Amino acid sequence: MLPAQDVAVRPDSVVDGLRRAVLSRELARDTAVTEAYVARTFGVARPTARIAIDKLVADGILVRKPHHAARVRVLDRDDIIDLFVSRAAIEVAAVELLASTATVPAEATTAHCTLRERPSGGSYAEADLAFHRSLVHGTTSTRLPRLHDLLMGEIELGIAQIEAHRLRSSDEIVAEHQAILDAIAAGDVAGASALARQHVLASRDQLVAHYDSTHPTAQKVT
To answer: Residue range 25-43: average pLDDT?
Structure first.
């Protein structure tokens, strides 16, 4: 259940709680998220609720049309394809930079170990996200992390869907992460690049296939 009256009234606490509610699917796709609802659920004033909603709109987790309440973002087929192609471009570039100096960020290793050692049946989305974010933020680039952060909200939605629908197993993800880390540590730029691209686009393909199976009229003829 969503917490009521037990979350600190700081806006960042409300943001975190609201984000978890969306990503865990406690708030279903396309659900309206009003200031009154957030204020009541988290025991905060409406200005604080508004700040939290605005933050998740900026992150791409919620969407809002003029004069309408914010709603939980729904990724359609085109969104999925565009998001994961963009994500792959950024993450592959980051992995290539890391492999060029055989640098494995400590945070990436930590996130990988957390994912590998998670309890059976436990959620893997948070550790998966941390792994990918740490690779990008572990580079010497100042621009790649900024670009990646712009997509993080939508990436979170995508990974949450993959986990919720069991489109990829945690063992599969751990094995692919390990291969990427090994290639980086070995200074294999081409290998790390190919593995990172395959890893991200495999998730894209699974999400697209799932979308097509649940939206048969939305499939495109190619």
So the answer is: 92
Contact 184, 102 (CB under 8 A): yes
In a domain, 5, yes or no: no
Residue ranges of E strands in the chain: 32-33, 62-63, 70-72
CA-to-CA distance for 28 and 64, rounded, in angstroms?
16
pLDDT in tens, 128-167: 999 999 999 999 999 999 999 999 999 999 999 999 899 9
- Structure token digits, residue 157: 């939605």
* pLDDT at residue 121 tops 90: no
Q: What is the CATH number of the domain that holds 43?
A: 1.10.10.10
144 vs 135, 137, 203, CA distance in Å? 10, 8, 21
H or E segment to which residue 28 belongs: none
Find the mean pLDDT for residues 19-33: 90
Cβ burial, residue 61 (10 Å; 0-12/13-18/19+): buried
